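Entry for 4'-deoxy-4'-aminopyridoxal-5'-phosphate complex. Fields follow.
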Amino acid sequence: MTDEKLSWLNGNFIDEEKAVVPIMTHSLQYGSGIFEGIRGYETPKGTEIFRLKEHVKRFFNTAKIYGMNLGFSEGDIEKAIIEIVRRNKLKSCYIRPFAFYDDHSVGVGTAGKKISVYIGAFPFGKYFSAADTGLKCKVSSWHRMESSILPIEAKASGNYLNSVIAMKEAKASGFDEAILTSRDGYVAEGPGENIFIVKDGALLTPGRDSQILLGITRNTIIELMKENGMQVIERFIHREELYTADEAFFVGTAAEVTPILNIDGITIGDGKVGSITKKVWETYFNLVQGKSNTHQDYLTYV
Ligand code: PMP
């Protein structure tokens, strides 16, 4: 076993290659896993894990919604995450806590089935290859599923089929990414990102009732930009408001802050990365890369 690629499984540090499951695993067959996506960043003071507590909280909330008893406390999982980053000597990285029904019998029911908890971490850079130059997006013909169908505030594996099919459609049509709307036509989010637009100097983002995952990056950016004196409005956004926006960008743990320059073939603003997007980008990266004096409690150094 090298000490370079360790994972954590049910309280034990194991070789990443040994973290495998049989094909018939319930969560593989039925999408019943739950997970988180967390980033670690290299900073002048060493690696920090960004908003660790909030991510672990959302992991436990997802488990609660699905009635999964993880058998560990939030503190246990936070410690294990810090330890996995430390032991793998990771700098900028992605961390994936995952809990799943570790049962291999046929049957959708979950009663009495074993739950396993895994944490993996690996080096990670940009999520989008066009992260700096901007994305071309397509409003999907697939709507965002709504919370009467599946709990959309939960970060559960099955939810991501809605994302997969929207992304497939966007890519097949020559776009970089999809934008999903709710069934009543309001803008919701990307397949793995929240969205913001800029109108007349204000930042607008779909609110909680717009069928979105309550993103931790979204929350961070709302907070940071309000502190910067910017007007930030959470409300329903019409599809056509995307086309007439001055600027648009995605945010998320993986996506960070990624400009959107074209939607459905319509150029957003002047087609260049806008000044407010740049400001959001700078403010966010200053914080996560340990160059800001504010919100130090969001940074957990390993
Ligand atoms: N929406 C969806 C569907 C996502 O998968 C993600 C990524 N977790 C986000 C939004 C952004 O959430 P966060 O900022 O917490 O990563």
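NOTE: The domain at 6-123 is CATH 3.30.470.10 (D-amino Acid Aminotransferase; Chain A, domain 1).
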